[in-house]
Amino acid sequence: MKERIKSLVLAALVVASLVQSYFLIYRLPGGGDSIVTSETNYVKTENMGQERSIEELIFPDQMIIHMGQDKHTVFYPGNTFYQLIYSRLKGRTFEDFQRRNVQSVHWDQIRKESPGFELSFKEGMPVALLQRVMRLGTDTLFQGETINRIAIYTTPNDTKAHALFFSAKGDVVYEATQADLTVQDVQQHVDFGTSWTPYTLMEGGYYIPAQALDAIEADVPTGQFTVEQMQRSLFFDPSMTRNIREKDGSEIYTDSKRSLQVKQFQRWISYTDPAAPPAGQSDASKDALSAVDFVNQHGGWKGRSRMMLRSTDNKTQLQFQQYYGSFPIMDSMQFRFGTINMEMQQETVSSYERSLEYLNEGAETKKSIKLPGGDKLKNLIRKVAGENRKVVDVYPAYRTSAMEDGLRLIPVWVIRFGNGEETTVS
């Protein structure tokens, strides 16, 4: 009997000790003021924007149709014919790549005389990433390349189509000697351009429309992520951050390792994580995959964006440029919007920049306008280029203008110079 009483007393003491420990640790006499955050609240990230796969972010900035006799037209992302050609091309197979010197191809002559089409990837896309959206065979030399242009064309008396993949370095081109595209396939795609706006091939290798280009100006209402949302998304424990107010009105939130700078006037955030990456050379493809995963988990995506990247030995710089309709939205230092900018080192995010503001598409008001073409556009280009600056690209985009309850998206022509600088005309 005594042993049974001892056991009951011991059990009661153990229970009392556990109850006391619970209240001492959690300090919950009234059900609140906990000093230990639950695991769910500690690591929770909010569903702020949509998730995207990397395949959704890889597409050409423009598609040029060559019709022979120096006749051309240009399709932009979102155009029906652009989407049709690109979706068909992603189902074709390209194999057995032959490496050639770029001078041996005579590309300037081909695009003037031979029917075909051309996909532009501006800064270039690593083959390892292109293989996620196209069926490209593996080849040791080709695998390590970055491609900025794909050209598919036919020549008289040929029974098969030619497929060229241009290196972004500008010195070599790879021809896929095995491509399951027939001459009839290429001609059908070329025919899509015959009734479209004609474009003129200029001396710098860029194209401008021979007549005014139809465009849409839109007033789009916007929403806004809160600073608290970004804090919860980017910091492991937001309660451990401290706030520093800068003289320029911006605020910095830091947990002593990472920092989040918020420029309230521009509604723009810059997140930096100086943690040292592991040793070794950067892999642009792996960095890009990690960057997309990071955005999916820390803010997500609003609207459609196209990925651009630039890689060095130890880091990869990425920019995800947002589109409205067929045109990209230009970022400017005066008003930051339209891009997500990232720097990756060994698959680790070292910096992450984006706008807190986002477009609420579907509730906008639109009106049709004309962007200048032909001689009028040539004169505008000549005026801004002057005597010394070489023009390498001209493309349509949207310039943003802030309104009380949203953004006005104004169509403009963007002129890019050989040194990388850009300016706009309209």
UniProtKB/TrEMBL annotation:
<dbReference type="InterPro" id="IPR009996">
    <property type="entry name" value="YycH"/>
</dbReference>
<protein>
    <recommendedName>
        <fullName>Regulatory protein YycH domain-containing protein</fullName>
    </recommendedName>
</protein>
<dbReference type="Pfam" id="PF07435">
    <property type="entry name" value="YycH"/>
</dbReference>
<feature type="domain" description="Regulatory protein YycH">
    <location>
        <begin position="3"/>
        <end position="417"/>
    </location>
</feature>
<dbReference type="InterPro" id="IPR042274">
    <property type="entry name" value="YycH/YycI_2"/>
</dbReference>
